[in-house]
Write a structure and sequence with these properties.
By secondary structure, the chain is α/β, with parallel strands linked by helices. The chain has helices at 19-29, 55-76, 96-121, 150-158, 182-189, 200-207, 214-226, 276-291, 295-311, 325-329, and strands spanning 4-15, 35-44, 50-52, 85-90, 142-143, 162-166, 171-172, 175-176, 195-196, 231-239, 242-253, 259-267, 341-342. It binds 3-hydroxy-5-(hydroxymethyl)-2-methylisonicotinaldehyde.
Length: 345
């Protein structure tokens, strides 16, 4: 197996659970050893008093990381070692400048990686699929996601040793909690992201499109896929005509460039679950690295864990991360399994 380098770039709060307080615990509890980069230091998710990392400070640290990861990669070359995987998980970033800094460092490192990989693979017959390409064609045909065979195509696309999971944390329920121009910065990130996990509000902001029904969700998913994202997971959508449920959606383009989407219907709890998106993204990263293909099953498992943790946190007004650590570490098959359903055109 290859050695993992997980870099989680998110907020840190002194009190409570969100951002890196969730990601670091979840990832470590599941046996990973993430590198934790804090973009801000606030008192809590409700009291944003504290400070943000400045762009120059961020550049200093990410620059050192980039140099180290690149050196490690050349060190591995010729020694018969396996390549080490690099997985970025990005969440709460307060300012446009910092989002741009993160994006450019990830992009530069990815290019260095691919160049070295191409050189290494020269003459090898078992060279993996190229990471880029093929994903920019317009999806012209509809595919309702009933066939499981397509997952293997996505599995190959994701089974590269460099992935960026971008949770475009901007706000929830119509309320923005980052600078306004961060919206524009994330729009610029779209072509460079592998997996994106917006909630409904963030999807609307990224696509300039109000979501009123399922067709709107599909339109937005296709918009992002056509701009180069390989996999979209919309973590939660709520419709005015169904207040009792939340819906999650997954979308990708199959090997023919057709849109594949499916959805998950989840009983909605009355819980102001700020931080559940952060829990979702950290779990998704863990499952994607370990299981690669079969995205519909991976998302079922992740939703299942998140749902159970929220259910066990209802009385406390905070996600009970520590108390639910065994659920967080489990294989996701616990409780009532939330199955993928087709999305009908
Ligand atoms: O859960 C998203 C999040 C992350 N980080 C900080 C937050 C929030 C949501 O409020 O305030 C600091």
């Amino acid at each position: 197996a290859s050695r993992e380098n997980i870099i989680s770039i998110q907020s840190h709060v002194l009190d409570g659970f969100c951002g890196n307080n969730i990601a670091s615990f979840v990832l470590r509890r599941r046996g990973h050893a993430p590198k934790i980069f804090n973009t801000v230091q606030y008192y809590s998710k409700y009291k944003h008093v504290g400070f943000e990392m400045k762009q120059e400070e961020m550049q200093t640290i990410l620059g050192a990381l980039k140099a180290d990861l690149a050196a490690m990669e050349s060190g591995n070359r010729g020694k018969g070692n396996h390549r080490s995987g690099v997985y970025f998980l990005t969440g709460y970033i307060k300012t446009k400048e910092c989002v741009e800094t993160v994006m450019s460092h990830i992009w530069e490192l990815k290019n260095e990686y691919n160049e070295k990989r191409d050189k290494q693979m020269d003459g090898h017959l078992d060279a993996p699929l190229p990471i880029e390409g093929k994903m920019n064609g317009d999806a012209t045909k509809w595919h309702n996601g009933n066939s499981c065979a397509d997952d293997s195509f996505l599995g190959k696309l994701l089974s590269v040793d460099f992935l960026w999971i971008c949770d475009p944390v901007m706000g929830d329920n119509g309320k923005l909690y980052v600078d306004k121009d961060v919206i524009f910065a994330y729009k610029k990130c779209i072509p460079f992201v592998d997996i994106m996990t917006p909630n409904q509000f963030e999807l609307e902001l990224l696509c300039d499109w109000k979501i009123k029904n399922e067709n709107d969700v599909t339109t937005c998913i296709l918009f992002l896929l056509n701009r180069g994202v390989k996999l979209i997971v919309v973590t939660s959508v709520q419709y005015p005509f169904d207040k009792d449920h939340l819906y999650s959606y997954v979308g990708y383009l199959n090997s023919q460039g057709e849109l594949v989407t499916f959805k998950y219907k989840i009983i909605r709890f009355d819980f102001n679950a700020c931080g559940s998106g952060d829990l979702f993204a950290a779990l998704l990263l863990s499952f994607v690295i370990r299981h690669r293909g079969n995205v519909r099953l991976i998302v079922s498992k992740v939703l299942n864990i998140v749902h159970n943790v929220i259910k066990n946190s209802l009385s406390s007004g905070e996600l009970n991360i520590i108390e639910n650590q065994d659920i967080i570490a489990c294989d996701g098959l616990c409780g009532n399994f939330i199955k993928a359903e087709p999305v009908c055109a």
